[in-house]
Write a structure and sequence with these properties.
Blueprint lengths: L1 H4 L8 E6 L3 E5 L2 E4 L5 H12 L3 E6 L11 E4 L3 H11 L5 E4 L6 E3 L20 E3 L3 H6 L6 E8 L3 H11 L4 E6 H4 L4 E8 L2 E9 H18 L1
Parallel strand pairs: 1-4, 1-6, 4-5, 6-9, 9-10
Antiparallel strand pairs: 2-3, 7-8, 10-11, 11-12
Helix pairs in contact: 2-7
The structure holds cytidine-5'-triphosphate and calcium ion.
Keywords: Decarboxylase, Flavoprotein, FMN, Ligase, Lyase, Magnesium, Metal-binding, Multifunctional enzyme
Catalytic activity: (R)-4'-phosphopantothenate + L-cysteine + CTP = N-[(R)-4-phosphopantothenoyl]-L-cysteine + CMP + diphosphate + H(+); N-[(R)-4-phosphopantothenoyl]-L-cysteine + H(+) = (R)-4'-phosphopantetheine + CO2
GO molecular function: FMN binding; metal ion binding; phosphopantothenate--cysteine ligase activity; phosphopantothenoylcysteine decarboxylase activity
Length: 222
Amino acid sequence: LVAYFQPKLLAGKRVLLTAGPTFEAIDPVRGITNLSSGKMGYAISRAAYEAGAQVTLVSGPVSLPCPVGVRRIAVTSALQMHATVHQQVAAHDVFIAVAAVADYRPAQVVEQKIKKRLQASPPSIELVANPDILGEVAALPSPPLCVGFAAESENLSEYAESKRRSKKIPLIVGNLIQDGFSGDCNTLILFDDDGAHPLPPAPKIDLARQLVARVALLLEKV
Ligand code: CTP
Ligand code: CA
């Protein structure tokens, strides 16, 4: 019902999002992942749909239902997320990268389950870097309006602003991980060319609607 009364700030716009963690396989039963419930990205997907957008959500493994009206593409690894985003991005006006992408993956996936061998020294895992999905999209010849997230454990403003500059994106959303992790509430700060805009602690869906309003404002400017 609430959705019915939301202003249609993104009417006619197409919004692509990433959300959740990625999972990088080590062997058939083990892997490396990040902690991410997916709740913030799913809330933004829902808010964007309520605001009239056509929404594509590229989601890592989470245990959340797909928001009504949203087209979800499920992926597991960062490489799959990367490929899916590149397939989809051209048809979109906005890209919001909320996913907690693993920065590294094992160089090789071992085909059979690795056995414990107590006599031998513990195995080590060689890692290679994953592509920076947001950074690459922002560097496309005619990129969509790009929005990033910076979840930090310290120095939030400094790290968020430096990511905004290095990835060359107009808007980054900062949050301290101790404020929002896995819960239904969060505290955010939006950083754009006009400076820092703190959004006080609120349910993730309320924050998502405020973010959507900011994105709509930026879209008017471009
Ligand atoms: N991101 C991405 N692809 C990656 C890594 C990050 O698209 N391989 C996106 C995230 O979805 C987020 C933003 O980039 O929107 C910032 O992610 P973050 O992990 O905070 O930044 P990094 O540049 O990876 O820096 P670090 O992990 O060292 O803080
Ligand atoms: Ca990272």
